[in-house]
Automatic annotation (TrEMBL):
The lineage of its organism: Bacteria, Pseudomonadati, Bacteroidota, Bacteroidia, Bacteroidales. Its EC number is 2.3.2.16. PANTHER family: LIPID II:GLYCINE GLYCYLTRANSFERASE. PROSITE patterns: FEMABX. One of its GO terms (biological process) is regulation of cell shape. It is an enzyme of class 2 (transferase). Belongs to the FemABX family. The keyword Ribosomal protein does not apply. InterPro entries: Acyl_CoA_acyltransferase (IPR016181), FEMABX (IPR003447), PG_Glycine_Bridge_Synth (IPR050644). One of its GO terms (molecular function) is aminoacyltransferase activity. Pfam families: FemAB. This is Lipid II:glycine glycyltransferase. It comes from Salinivirga cyanobacteriivorans.
Length: 364
């Protein structure tokens, strides 16, 4: 296996279906204080090209004399016969001299499917996935056959490691029929009650943000400031290949729910969402999700990424409510491998890891 890596300008990367690996995202993260680099990767064997992709790497200061590097959702697939750890190690070894000298680790948000979904012992008698095993077991598997054994399972996942994909390659009525009966009923009930969804412009962003803050307070989760979403909105103007929609579900001009939807190369992603605590009987979030799917279809998308659920039907998980809601729309549950750190400075990394684990991520 041979890996060739070439540096390139972040605003010149090829577009793909992952919004976090686009010029739109590069521009957005630069506006939020990250340093952005880009590379072209080519993976080959016996002079035969296996796969290739352009990839963003983000770096940020995490201490006065230390930085971290982060790759959001690796933007290419590898053959099943290849060992994940080998590929991550080769990527790191090929690009580490481009990283700051005080970089403690390179964090990969690994978008590839978890290998543990194919282990029968990881399922209970009802067919529910029990999740990944303990981190040290996962590390043994990931580092097997690598030269440095430097890959560590991150204490937190930055982007969702579990999601639901809805197939949009069907007629709308067929998509509705694939939903659970209660979800389908709520979609139609919301329509009957007069809930409408509009494609809003930037003037609606303050209204959406109020719903978003209400949602984060209700669920006691981290929130980003208004300037964060202003930067997101402005960044999409620099990338015509990325479509960004602000969808608002309303009844009599009263906002019920809203979402920021991205569309890239055939995939739509439910990036950020919010809902009101009032008038929940109107089922605004159900109408909103359905309209997002129709909007995605109209824009040529074949897949809708619902972007974040609990790994299984587990009432104790903080994302269980999202699992119950989103599962009703008939999507396929997909388990990514989550974040992995290639460590350059073990001692300083462990100090950072201890501090980071005190702020556990929502997607663990």
């Amino acid at each position: 296996m041979d890996l060739n890596v070439f540096a390139k300008h972040p605003m010149e990367i090829s577009e793909n279906y992952i919004p976090q690996q686009t010029t739109f995202w590069a521009n957005f993260k630069q506006r939020n204080g990250w340093n952005v680099q880009a590379f072209h990767l080519e993976l080959s064997e016996s002079d035969s090209l296996i796969t290739y992709a352009d990839m963003l790497i983000l770096t940020q200061r995490i201490a006065p004399d230390a930085t971290m590097a982060y790759i959001p959702y690796i933007p290419f697939e590898i053959p099943e016969s290849y060992h994940y750890g080998d590929v991550l190690e080769q990527i790191t070894e090929s690009i580490k001299h481009y990283l700051p000298k005080n970089c403690l680790f390179l964090r990969f948000d690994v978008s590839w499917e978890s290998p543990w979904v194919y282990e029968p012992e990881r399922f209970d008698e009802n067919g529910n996935w029990l999740g990944n095993p303990a981190p040290h077991v996962r590390e043994l598997r990931m580092n097997f056959g690598t030269r440095t054994h430097a890959l560590r399972k991150s204490g937190t996942d930055v982007l969702p490691s579990n999601t639901l994909f809805v197939d949009l390659n069907k007629r709308p009525e067929s998509i509705l029929q694939k939903m659970k009966s209660k979800t389908r009923y709520n979609v139609r009930l919301s329509e009957r009650k007069g809930v409408s969804v509009r494609r809003a412009n930037k003037t609606a962003l303050p209204t959406w943000y109020r719903l978003y803050r209400e949602t984060t307070l209700r669920n006691q989760i981290h929130y980003d400031d208004y300037q964060f979403f202003e930067a997101l909105w402005e960044a999409q103007k620099k990338d015509p290949e990325t479509k960004l929609e602000l969808l608002m579900a309303e009844k009599d001009n009263e906002p019920l729910a809203g979402m920021i939807l991205t569309m890239n190369n055939g995939r739509a992603t439910y990036l950020y969402g919010a809902s009101s605590s009032k008038n929940r009987h109107l089922m605004g979030p159900y109408r909103l999700q359905w309209e997002a799917m129709l909007t995605a279809q109209q824009n040529g998308c074949e897949t809708y990424d619902m972007f974040g659920v609990s790994p299984s039907d587990d009432p104790t998980h903080p994302m269980y409510g999202l699992y119950r809601f989103k599962k009703g729309f008939g999507g396929h549950l997909f388990h990514r491998q989550g974040c992995w750190d290639y460590v350059f400075n073990e001692r300083e990394y462990q100090l950072f890891r201890t501090e980071e684990q005190q702020m556990q991520g929502y997607h663990n």
